[in-house]
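Listing 4. Sequential folding, example run.
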Amino acid sequence: MTKRPVLVVLFDDVQSLDVTGPVEVFAGAGRVAGSGGTYPIATASLDGGLVRTHSGLRMLPDTTLAEADRPHTLLVPGGEGTRRPDPRLIDWLRENAPRADRLVSVCTGALLLAEAGLLDGHRATTHWAACDHLARCYPEVDVEPEPIFVRDGSLSTSAGVTAGIDLALALVEEDLGRDAALTVARHLVVFLRRPGNQAQFSAQLAAQTARRQPLRDLQQWITEHPSDDLSVEALAARARLSPRHFARAFQAETGTTPGRYVDRVRMEHARRLLEQTADGVQEVSRAAGYGTPEAMRRAFVKAMGTAPADYRRRFHAPVPSAPRTAR
């Protein structure tokens, strides 16, 4: 079995989940492959001393960066420590990161790569709260604020925290195949992996929660009834407001129009059904409120750049069969 050593860079105020999430994926993949040595994992800091994460958790690196072996995958996590990084860390990344076969960042780890000039001319993403900063301070980087991870050749960058798990699963799938990645995902109780072009925000997160209880309840009701009549008129009637007053109040309190919110909810519902069920495209289109497969196809092509059938072929995770009942 081909060995693909992973080196994780540590520094003070690192986000612990940016480290442990991908590490658990690679370690689990090694066990699935029948050899814990498939992904030998090492951690390293500038001086090899104890590192305190942003949450206060302490991590003891395996070695210093200067003494670390050249890895197949160099993983650079994020955290508060990326805001004022040690210049020596930037120098080390600038000199050594290009030697890795794969360069991966999680969350604001992208800021360290950008400071080292390693993202210039590349597509990249980071935590939604840092995307504007990345684009403003590093204009040579093609920042994509929407996706949960972006892959550009041997360079991969991901959004905040748990998106690092999605990216690590994608890399495992590339290395060892879909079955291995699916097994790891099941052990971690996560999706096989969310597609990289999935937005960092769900409909509920992208829109603010309305201040008034009736509108908050309506937001929740929409997510639970995507196939119902969700026109402005129907929603206004449910909220007991005039259509005009409802549309204004909804946008003022959620930051988005009712139509856009409904579009996001229906798209998310359809994607979940395509990923997790064996329902036909026609059934999915009805359940998600599109009515016809053609209406859903147009929505998918516009939002995702791919047709529903192609999306399912790429991202459908087979539902595990129910265990047999002992007799």
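-- end of first protein; second protein begins --
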Amino acid sequence: MQKLRIFYPFVGGATIGGSHVSALGLIRNLDTERYEPVIALHREAGALGAYISDMGLSYEVLETPRIIAPKHSRSPQDASLSGFLLRSVPQMVRYLKRNKIDIVHTNDGRMHGSWSLPAKLAGCKFIWHHRQGPDAKGANFIAPLLADKILSVSEFSRPERPIRGIDSKFQVVRSPFDLDPNIPDRAACHKDLCSELGLPEDAVLLAYFGVLNDRKRPVHFVEALRAVRDVMPTRPVHGLIFGKVETEGSGLDQACVERADALGVSANLHMMGFRDPPAPAMAGVDALLITALDEPFGRTLIEAMHLGTPVVATRHGGNPEAIVDGETGFLVDPYDANAFASPVLHLTEDKTLSDRIAHAAQKDVRGKYGLDIHVAQTTAVYDTLAGGMD
């Protein structure tokens, strides 16, 4: 049987986000007897290239053709609209044909916009893996016209005003999670983090995991840290931000530091940087706080639930699709940072509650979000699209 050649383009560089982890987890676990992945990085390799290599995968760096990108992530290396249409699109079409690509599978806005038209012109099937909110322009105006399939990480993300009906194209496929049964000892991991930071072992450690961008609201996390500290005056409460800014020069890391200073919690905030693997650190904190708005379906939420780390998340975006409030975690008012204080206080003071939440979350996650489930659902889409090829 001839293998399906599936093309996965990404923008290379320093950022490694949830979409990368999800897509690469899928790629690494494809049946190599049936599927042949082709990975390309635009602009440069960078940390993402190293991450891909560490996974045992190969990739190609594409200095040309140049891509198009929104203003917030535009690079001098990118093309103008006219340059993209006149030069990049023909180059991309030739690339797809030369490499005998059957399916193009894109995973972020820049790649959707850059590869959707060339895929159509080259006669490839095109999968738009939608990881943004329901109001994303591309998902509402381009995907309905050019995508053969729109995969989404949550029902929340379903395009709200598509230019054309998408019922036959739209499908929810949850992000893949490698639910390693070897869970780190949480008490030992907590002790290690306290030792690393020079904190007493009874410190309450609250965490933010993920890239720093406006949607995830790391500054709101700092405000929640202050609220928790205020309701637990006799305990050392510390906030740990694991991750890097999504866009260089955004200043969100400095904004967190400045907000902590303004709120009087500078000594309680720790900028921890990116950790790989994240599990030891995530298992070592007392609670993960999800402060995002319009988050389609966050990876860290599921990963923490699997590890037995209680999650307190905003009642917004895809979070309510993952958490049953009071049973597998807590959902709070997304606009009130003080709302995080009560759940964290109860989790910290009531070990029976904390254990019950952790066990229920682990059971729920393992039944729904295994990597094997994601791979099976996605490859079924590949096979269906392949069946419709000429």
